[in-house]
Amino acid sequence: MSISNITVFMPSVLTLTGIPGLESVQCWIGIPFCAMYLIAVIGNFLLLIIIKSERSLHEPMYIFLGMLGVTDIVLSTSVVPKMVGIFWFHVPEIYFDSCLLQMWLIHTFQGIESGILLAMALDRYVAICYPLRHAAIFTPQLVTQIAAMVTLRAAILVAPCLMLIKFRLQFYHTTVVSHSYCEHMAIVKLAAENIRVNKIYGLFVAFTVAGLDLILITLSYIQIFITVFLLPQKEARLKAFNTCIAHICVFLQFYLLAFFSFFAHRFGSYIPPYIHILFSSIYLLVPPFLNPLVYGAKTKQIRVHMVKRFCS
User: Fold this and answer.
1) 191 strand-pairing partners
2) Residue 116 CB neighbour total at 10 angstroms
3) Cα-flanking dihedrals φ and ψ of residue 191, to 5°?
4) I need a surface site. Which of 17, 77, 161, 252 has the fewest CB within 10 A?
5) 3-state DSSP call for residue 58?
6) What is the mean pLDDT of each run of 10 residues along the chain (312 residues)?
C-alpha cells in the first residue's frame, strides 16, 4: 500500500530486473547459465553417487567433498530457476517473503561452503603435517560435529539479516530490485529508512564467516607448504603437493569471486552495474560448476572410480 508519493509500505511483491543494461541479450546469457547449472547438478550428483557407493572413499576428505556437492546443488538450485524465469520467460516478480527466503538460502549455503572449504583445508593440514595422527583426530564423530557446526553457524548468523529487513525496514523507495537474484544489500538499499544497522551486521557476518575462514585456510596452507618443502624426497614432495592442487584451485576461485562481489556491492560505485551483477551471478554458478570438474580431474581416486563406472 502506498502511503506517499515516494515510499511504499511493506511491499508484498518485488520485481527483479535481471542484469541492468543487458536486457536485450539476457535470453542469450541464460543459455550458458543454464548449461553451467545442468553440468553442476549432474556432476555433483555423480560425485555423491561415487562417494556413497565406494567404501574406499568413506574418508573425511571425500565426505567433506560430498557435503560440498550437496551445498553446490542447493546453492545453484536456489538461484538459477528464478534467473531463467527472468531471462527467458519474463517473469521478474517475486513475493517479498520468497525473496527473503531465497536470500537466506543463498547466504546460508555460501557460509556453509566456506566452512566446508575450511574443514577440507584442516583435513589436508593434519594429513600432511601429522599423517600418523590423522585417523585418530578426524574420527567419524568429529566429521559429524564439524558438519553440524558449519551448518548451524551459517544458518544462525544469516537469520538476523532476515529479521532486520522484515521487522525493521517498513518503508521502501521502490519495489524494483536491480539484480538477478535476492541479494542482501540489493534489498536493503531499497529501504527509505536508516540502513546503517543492516550494513554493519552484513559486514560482521561476512568477516566472521568468509574472512575468518580465509585467514585460517591461508595459515593452514602456509604450514602445509613449509612441511612439504622440508620433505627429503622429491617424489614425496610432488605427491603431497598434488593432493592439495584441487583444493587450492577451488579455494582461489571461490574466495576471489566472493570478495569481488562483496566489495563491489559496498564500495564499487564506479563499477558499471551490469559488470557487478554479471560477476555476482557467475560467482554463484562457477563454484558448483567447477568443483566436480576440478575434483574429478585432479583427484586420482575419484577419477579412477568414475572411469570404472562409465566403462562398466
Assistant:
1) 172
2) 24
3) -65, 145
4) 252
5) coil
6) 64 92 89 94 92 89 93 95 93 95 96 94 91 92 96 96 93 92 92 92 91 92 87 75 77 80 68 84 89 79 79 72
